[in-house]
Amino acid sequence: MPRNKRTTMTKQLFFALAAVAALASCRPDPTLDERLAGTWNLSDLNMSGTIPSPLGAIPITITDSLIRPDNFMDLAINEDETQTIYWNMDVRGLITSPVLGAFGADIQDTINGTWYAVDGGGVTPDSLFITADGEKTGYEILSFLETSLRLRSVQTIVDPDLGSQTFTQEVTFIK
Predict the structure, then answer these.
(1) What is the mean pLDDT of residues 145-166?
(2) 52-109 pLDDT, tens per residue?
(3) What is the pLDDT of residue 158?
(4) How far apart are alpha carbons 3 and 151 in whole angstroms?
(5) Is 122 left (phi over 0), alpha (psi -120 to 50) or beta?
(6) Residue 53 falls within a domain, yes or no?
(7) Which residues have a Cβ under 8 Å from the Cβ of 146 and sit 6 or more positions away?
(8) What's the CATH code of the domain at 134?
């Protein structure tokens, strides 16, 4: 084969490979939803708030003293593009209060529903919203790295015996 033809074929092959490489590198960055998707294991739980009493509001804090196995949150993006969550929490909590003292209690909850994230664009904090049992709960994403996620939510809980209570909940997950 003449040298000119070989040089032309080499150039064409080089440009074809360069075009393929350029197209491959043009993939868009993953969305916040795509980066959050996966299974996250609970590593820390903290709650604080007040409970009403005849003496007035009693401040309490709850920290995890034992995170049992199988504590995880699975954020899935399904083939039909729906986003589902399954969050299993089974924790032994230490409840402390200046009025009530300190005692342990089991905190067990399973959340099964849908989720979506809102990217704050660097202007406001990113958020995670979960809808389960007809209720929507928003979580501020306090920190998010590839293998750790810390969320905070302020929630009002209405208990038939204790009335309305507001709690701040912070949870940390690891992958």
Answers:
(1) 87
(2) 877 788 899 999 999 999 999 999 999 999 999 999 999 999 999 998 899 999 999 9
(3) 81
(4) 65
(5) left
(6) yes
(7) 175
(8) 2.40.128
3-state secondary structure the chain: CCHHHHHHHHHHHHHHHHHHHHHHCCCCCCCHHHHHCEEEEEEEEEEEEEECCCCCCEEEEEEEEEECCCCEEEEEECCCCCEEEEEEEEEEEEEEECCCEEEEEEEEEEEEEEEEEECCECCECCEEEEEECCEEEEEEEEEEECCEEEEEEEEEEEECCCEEEEEEEEEEEEC
> Rounded distance, CA 135 to CA 121, Å?
26
The pLDDT assigned to 93 comes to 94
Total tally of structural domains belonging to the chain: 1
Using the structure block, give the residue that is written with the tokens 């593009």: 81
d(CA 100, CA 50): 12
- Residue 135: inside a domain, yes or no? yes
Here the tokens at position 132 are 């389960």
Domain span at residue 72 reads 32-174
